[in-house]
Structures are given as structure tokens and as C-alpha cells.
Specification:
Chain A is of the alpha/beta class and 263 residues long. Chain A contains eleven helices and eight strands. Chain A has two domains: 122 residues, Rossmann fold (3-Layer(aba) Sandwich), CATH 3.40.50; 123 residues, 3-Layer(aba) Sandwich (Rossmann fold). Chain A is globular. Chain B folds into two domains: 214 residues; 160 residues, Fumarate Reductase Iron-sulfur Protein, Chain B, domain 2 (Orthogonal Bundle). The chains are: A alpha/beta (263), B mainly alpha (441).
């Protein structure tokens, strides 16, 4: 299989008496959602290509508890958090990277108060760092002449103030970066946050992802770049509902970079 | 001391007394909230207050209303320096008492007050037009019908009337100065009233002008005192609370929600291998706390201060993805409901004592479940608020109450929670399949 990935689990490495540089927290969507699994694989391809010494928890990973917390079930959230922290601290994890802004936010902001202190990075920040260190070279070329819009994930942008890392990566693709009307601090949610992903929207005039798609239609990009598996679902659905599958593609940042570098 | 000085002193004292009384009520109401520590990082808090409250950094995100608001705000603050002179004149029966000690600087002051007063007047006129003629969308949501709309118009009309009185007073004074009328000393510069009103007044008799000057003077000061006492009943109270509200606002990243300590204790106990499973539960210290917020007393004092700081501008609701797509949720309504309910609880306490219950609650009687479940926790509302109000934290505390106290949630949410509990993911996948993606290329 040409696409075989090099992925160790923390347990494997521990058995060999080794420790990785960084833990890749895959997240539930990245583990189970068919579309998001492609993002996970694309990110791992980049990590493999650069030669990052990483590991995953594999079957020892469990939901961070974010959707439980945002739904109001603090009890379930803290149960999840404490059992995850036991596992993470057991492996003496210091550094975590994740492709999900919800996991990122929860691990970074809400775990320290419960005894889980890690340096947590969103994959856009991690990739930007690899780029700055000269380890990751983004080829560009592939996307020359294409227009790309970045849809800010709420839990990366407003929630944690990171607007530039994803844009700095996109800049390297030699594409034309077209901002959506509502972006950065003003970015419009895709509609999935706060446990909305798992339920029908409340009655209203419109779905939120359709409202967001109208921003996209106005900016007329060839590609909508996302940095969150839930935004991916909502934006992909939006494109389908608007019947724009032929003209607008939705990709995660990791997929664009993997594609650009022909990984 | 003349009769008018005595009347002035009585009016001033009555206004001060009544305002202090109402201010106390509001402080008491805010203190009904639970404790939360917002006294840390003083330096950062001062900086934020200078930027956001004094510097209006968030207001100018909307350039037009931001600029108009700055005109009114600066005008209000600066023109109030004039109040010092008015109060001294009122008590001692003097006239423009500061003119002599300040010399030519006095002319600069009065001149700038006039320009600012004119800018305030024009801005308020434009605000009235925006609300009533252009019907800017964010002022038209359902929570703005009735009293909130009237409240907004009262504020703007009163401000226009006060500024007009100030300018008319100056114009009459100026003409009287020119005529060398006794008591009206040569003082001040009148760039606005001099060119706009004075030409009209020049034909009036001296007696009539003295009448106009006195009536305007009294109208202005009594108006100001009444307006001061209107504040506690109005959304306009934000001119006082905006500053402390920004100072005490959340400094953590917006995405960081509080971890409930009461829950942490219980969960830690469950994870403690030493814990005796048959031990009787420890006696709770003090009254048993409710999980989350059902009524205003379950919120923190900061969340209650937020409610009193809201001036119903609707920037939160305008940015809210749920409100924009026609859902029932409006973050502004969350704040308005919180204040209305808090006022009601405060009145009940004053009337029937602290333990009285009217059988009503914020959640259910004011805020509906449907509103709460429409929130995506995207933080657009908290980002938009010019005075750092946090409607999201109230929404979250009420969801906690729904889930942890009442076990009420949409069926899909219950399913999702069950999945996390049973298989560690919000969907029904087995935890043993978590790493299958590795070989699925």
C-alpha cells in the first residue's frame, strides 16, 4: 500500500522505552467521521514527511468532553477530562497537537484547572512552526491562480485569538487569498459549535451554514479552507445544498498542504 | 441668600438623596449574585478599561454609530465640567463664578462646551432618525418593542432638550452681556449660540432675555437632576456601569468556560481509589448549591452587573448566528430578561423579605429552553459587546441547570451524552475502532 502511514501509539513507544516529541490528539471526528479521517491522514502524511516524532493514544483516546460541557453536562465533561488527564499524565505528555479546534480549546483552556497541563497547539500553529523552523517547505504551484477563502473556526479564532497561523500557511500555496465578508473577529460560525453538531437546529428562517455559504458565494473562491472537522461538515453540506460542488471545494489546511506537496 | 438659592439647594439635595437611594438598590440587587473573583490582574484590568470603556475601542468597530457615540460621550463628560460652575452659581447666587479666576481659559472652555453641545445635539438627532425613520434593523427585534423603544427615545429627546437649553441660555447671556446689563459680566465665547441663536434674540427686550436666560438655566439644571434620577430606571445606566463592567470583565480566553468546583469535588472523589464507597456523603457546608442557573440569584454578581450595564444596542444580537437566521435566541434579550427579573426579585425582597418566593424564575418565565438550545457558543456576542458583557456565560449556566437539575435536553443531545458516557465519543462508535483510520487509506 503506497499510502501506508507511520503511526505509533503511546503504548507502543512506552513498551520500547521511548517517548515521542508530541502527541497527536486525533479527536472523535478525526477518528470516526469519514470526511474528517481524510484530514487526519493528510496531517499524518505531513508529519511523516517532515519526520516528526509523534504518537497517538489510539484506543486509549476518548472524547475531551467538549460537547458535553457545551451542552451543559459539566459532570460528564469532568469525568471525561479527569480520565483523559490520568492517561495523558501517565504517559508524561508535555506537548499536544490536534486538528480539531474544539479539542484544542478544551485541552488548552479547561484541562489545566483539573490537573492537565500541556502545551497545546492547533495543527495550523504546529505546521506554521514547522515552516518557520525550515522543516516544512510548502511547494505551492499546485494552487497557483486559485482563489482560496479561509473560514475561521470560532474555537480557534474568537475563542483563542488565532487568526494568522492558518492564513500564513495559505499564503505559501501561491494562491490568491480572498477574505470572506465576515472574517477573523467578525467571522460567522458554521452552525456546529456548542453541541449543535449533534442536533437539529432550533426552528428559524434559515440554516446557519447556508447563511455562511452566502458569504462564500459572494467572495467566489475556488476553495474554502477550513481548520475544523465540524466546519468541514457544515461547509460541505452548505456547498451541496447550494449545488456548488463543481465550482467550490472544501478542504482542510492539512489537506491543501499535503496536496500541494504531492504527499 | 435668596429664595431661589434655597430652592436650588433643596432640589440638589433631593436629587442626590433619591439617586443614592436607587443606586443602593441596584448595588443590593447586584450583590444577590454569587461570588466570583475578578480582583486579580489589576494592571491588565485598568488597561482594558482605558482601551475599551474610556477609549471606546469596540464602539468604533462600527464607524458611523461609533463616531456619533464618541461625540455624545465626550460631550457628556466635558460639558459636565460646566456643572461645577452651575452648582456654585446656584448655591451662592453668583453668575459665571469661574470666569474671573480662569481668565481667558474660561472663554476656551465655554467655547468648546458650545461646540460639543452642538455635536451632541446633532448626534442625538441622527440617532433618533436611525431608530425611528431609517429603522436600523438591530433596533427592531421583538425585545425592543414597547418600553425599550420609548426608553431610547426619551433619552435622546431629553439630551436634545438639555443641549438646546444650554445653548439658549448662552445666547441670551451673550446678548445681555453686550447690552451691559448688570450681573451679566463679560465672559465666555459663544461660537455656536452666537451665530445660530443670537441674531434671533437681538430684537428681544432686555427683560424678556433675562427671563429666557433664567428659564433656560433652571430648565437645564433641573433637567440634569431629573435625568440623573431617570438613569436607574433606564438602559441609560450604562453611562455609569460601563466602566466598572469592563474593569471586572473576563480576562481568560473567550473559549475557556468555568470548571464547576462543586462538580470537581465529586468527580475527584469518584476517581480516588482510597475513597470508601459506602461512606455517608459529607454534610454540605452551608445551603446546597444549585447546579447551573435557574434564577438570577444563581448567577454571579458580574453577570448581574452585565445586565445593568446593557444599553440594548443590539450589536450582540446583530452578530449572533442564531438570531441572524431567525432562531428565537437574542443575546440582548438574555441580558434584558436578566435585568427585568432581577428588578422583580429586588422588589419582592423589599416588599416581602429575603426569603420570599414568587414561584417564578428567570429560566422558564423569562428565558425559554428554545432560546438556550439555539446557541452555538461561538462568542460572536461577547466579541461584539462594546462594554464586555458576556451573555454566553448566562446561556451556559442555564443549560447546566436544564441538564443537571432538570435532565431536560433535546433527544439528540441526550443521545450524544449517552454515547460519550458509554463509548467515549459523541457518536455510536466503539472506542476500540478509534485508530482504524490508520489503515483505511
Amino acid at each position: 500500500m503506497s499510502e501506508s502511514l507511520q503511526v505509533n501509539t503511546m503504548a507502543d513507544l512506552m513498551a520500547q522505552g521511548k517517548k515521542p516529541e508530541v502527541l497527536f490528539w486525533v479527536g472523535c471526528a478525526g477518528s470516526f467521521d469519514d470526511r474528517a479521517k481524510k484530514i487526519t491522514r493528510a496531517f499524518v502524511k505531513i508529519l511523516n514527511n517532515v519526520g516528526v516524532n509523534f504518537a497517538i493514544l489510539g484506543t486509549e483516546e476518548s472524547c475531551t468532553g467538549d460537547p458535553a460541557k457545551r451542552a451543559g453536562n459539566e459532570f460528564l465533561f469532568q469525568m471525561q477530562a479527569m480520565s483523559n488527564i490520568q492517561v495523558l499524565n501517565g504517559y508524561e505528555v508535555k506537548k499536544i497537537v490536534t486538528t480539531c479546534p474544539h479539542c484544542f480549546n478544551t485541552l488548552k483552556n479547561e484541562y489545566p484547572g483539573l490537573g492537565g497541563n500541556y502545551e497545546v497547539m492547533h495543527h495550523s500553529q504546529f505546521l506554521q512552526k514547522l515552516m518557520e523552523e525550515g522543516k516544512l517547505k510548502i511547494e505551492g504551484g499546485e494552487f497557483k491562480g486559485k482563489k482560496i477563502s479561509f473560514h475561521d473556526p470560532c474555537y480557534l479564532g474568537r475563542a483563542n485569538g488565532e487568526y494568522e497561523a492558518p492564513r500564513n500557511l495559505l499564503q505559501e500555496l501561491d494562491a490568491e487569498l480572498v477574505e470572506l465578508k465576515r472574517c477573523k473577529t467578525q467571522g460567522l460560525c458554521c452552525g456546529a459549535g456548542g453541541a449543535q453538531m449533534f442536533k437539529e437546529a432550533e426552528p428559524g428562517k434559515k440554516e446557519i451554514n447556508i447563511e455562511r455559504m452566502e458569504d462564500v458565494e459572494e467572495a467566489k473562491p475556488d476553495i474554502v479552507a477550513v481548520g475544523c472537522p465540524f466546519c468541514m461538515t457544515m461547509m460541505t453540506d452548505g456547498v451541496k445544498t447550494k449545488e456548488k460542488e463543481d465550482s467550490i471545494k472544501v478542504y482542510d489546511l492539512a489537506e491543501l498542504i499535503a496536496e500541494s506537496n504531492k504527499l | 441668600m435668596g429664595i431661589s438659592n434655597i430652592f436650588f439647594i433643596i432640589a440638589l439635595a433631593a436629587a442626590g438623596f433619591w439617586f443614592a437611594k436607587n443606586l443602593n438598590k441596584i448595588i443590593r440587587n447586584i450583590n444577590l449574585g454569587k461570588d466570583i473573583d475578578r480582583g486579580d490582574s489589576k494592571a491588565e484590568r485598568w488597561k482594558k478599561m482605558f482601551m475599551v470603556a474610556i477609549g471606546q475601542s469596540k464602539m468604533v468597530k462600527k464607524p458611523i454609530s461609533g463616531a456619533l457615540h464618541i461625540a455624545v460621550y465626550v460631550g457628556f463628560v466635558i460639558i459636565n465640567i460646566e456643572m461645577l460652575e452651575i452648582v456654585i452659581d446656584g448655591i451662592f447666587g453668583t453668575h459665571r463664578v469661574l470666569a474671573e479666576p480662569l481668565g481667558s481659559f474660561y472663554n476656551i472652555l465655554i467655547g468648546s462646551f458650545e461646540i460639543l453641545a452642538f455635536l451632541v445635539l446633532i448626534s442625538c438627532l441622527i440617532f433618533l432618525i436611525r431608530r425611528n425613520v431609517l429603522k436600523v434593523k438591530r433596533f427592531g427585534f421583538r425585545e425592543m418593542l414597547g418600553w425599550p423603544k420609548t426608553d431610547a427615545n426619551i433619552i435622546l429627546i431629553v439630551e436634545i432638550m438639555l443641549m438646546s437649553a444650554f445653548l439658549k441660555m448662552n445666547a441670551a447671556d451673550y446678548v445681555l452681556q453686550q447690552r451691559g446689563v448688570e450681573h451679566y459680566i463679560q465672559a465666555g465665547a459663544f461660537p455656536i449660540s452666537g451665530s445660530l441663536i443670537v441674531p434671533l434674540y437681538e430684537s428681544f427686550s432686555t427683560g424678556f432675555l433675562i427671563f429666557v436666560e433664567r428659564v433656560s438655566w433652571w430648565f437645564h439644571i433641573i433637567g440634569v437632576l431629573l435625568f440623573l434620577n431617570y438613569l436607574p430606571y433606564s438602559k441609560h445606566f450604562h453611562i455609569i456601569l460601563a466602566f466598572p463592567n469592563v474593569f471586572f470583565s473576563k480576562l481568560d480566553p473567550k473559549g475557556k468556560f468555568t470548571n464547576m468546583e462543586a462538580v470537581t469535588k465529586e468527580v475527584k472523589l469518584m476517581f480516588d481509589p482510597e475513597a470508601d464507597p459506602y461512606a455517608a456523603p459529607a454534610e454540605p457546608e452551608g445551603p446546597v448549591e444549585r447546579f447551573g442557573a435557574k434564577d438570577v440569584q444563581d448567577l454571579t454578581w458580574k453577570q448581574l452587573m452585565d445586565a445593568y450595564s446593557c444599553t440594548e444596542c443590539g450589536r450582540c444580537t446583530e452578530q449572533c448566528p442564531a438570531a441572524q437566521t431567525g432562531k428565537l435566541l437574542s443575546p440582548r434579550k438574555i441580558m434584558m430578561d436578566t435585568r427585568d427579573r432581577l428588578e422583580e426579585v429586588g422588589k419582592n425582597i423589599a416588599k416581602h423579605g429575603a426569603d420570599h418566593s414568587d414561584g417564578k424564575s428567570l429560566l422558564g418565565d423569562y428565558i425559554l429552553e428554545e432560546e438556550l438550545w439555539a446557541c452555538t457558543t461561538c462568542n460572536a456576542c461577547t466579541e461584539a459587546c462594546p462594554v464586555m458583557i458576556d451573555p454566553l456565560s448566562i446561556i451556559m449556566d442555564m443549560r447546566r441547570s436544564l441538564i443537571m437539575e432538570d435532565s431536560k435536553a433535546p433527544a439528540e443531545i441526550t443521545n450524544m451524552l449517552n454515547n460519550i458516557e458509554n463509548n467515549g465519543a459523541p457518536w455510536q462508535f466503539s472506542q476500540t475502532d478509534r485508530a482504524n483510520w490508520v489503515n483505511e487509506g
